[in-house]
Specification:
127 residues; mainly alpha; 3 helices; 84% helix; transmembrane helix; GtrA_CellWall_Glycosyl; transmembrane; membrane
């Protein structure tokens, strides 16, 4: 339960990064391409937090391999996240002020998928 709580904290910080980057990118790229950029920034942020604080991986892990696995598995939860986000944006024709709510809906919908994949596939190093 403690791991899931820390995972949620990392996700909250990732959400804030996601929203900040999205609001900046939306001005130039629109809400969909902007979200791809902001999602990538959030994945990097949550990986750094989760590897250090949630799953406490050892320094022996290959950072490149671990990040590759984390990013790849994040696509599973990310697909749920982005599809939910896009459905809300398209269905409600949201203005930029409401985009953070759509990001929150997408983020919550993908969190459990991401946690299970991270716990059982990415951070599986001997302690």
């Amino acid at each position: 339960m403690k791991q899931f709580g820390m995972f949620a904290v990392a996700g909250t910080i990732g959400y804030l990064v996601d929203v900040a980057v999205l609001l900046l990118c939306n001005l130039v790229m629109g809400p969909h391409i902007g979200r791809l950029v902001s999602f990538s920034a959030a994945v990097v942020t949550t990986w750094l937090i989760n590897r250090r604080h949630t799953f406490s991986t050892s320094g022996d892990a290959s950072l490149r391999r671990e990040f590759s696995r984390y990013f790849t598995t994040s696509i599973g939860g990310g697909a749920v996240n982005l599809l939910s986000y896009s459905a809300v944006v398209n269905a409600l024709n949201l203005t930029p002020v409401w985009l953070p709510l759509a990001v929150a809906f997408g983020s919550l919908s993908g969190m459990t998928v991401n946690f299970l994949l991270a716990k059982h596939f990415v951070f599986t190093y001997p302690k």
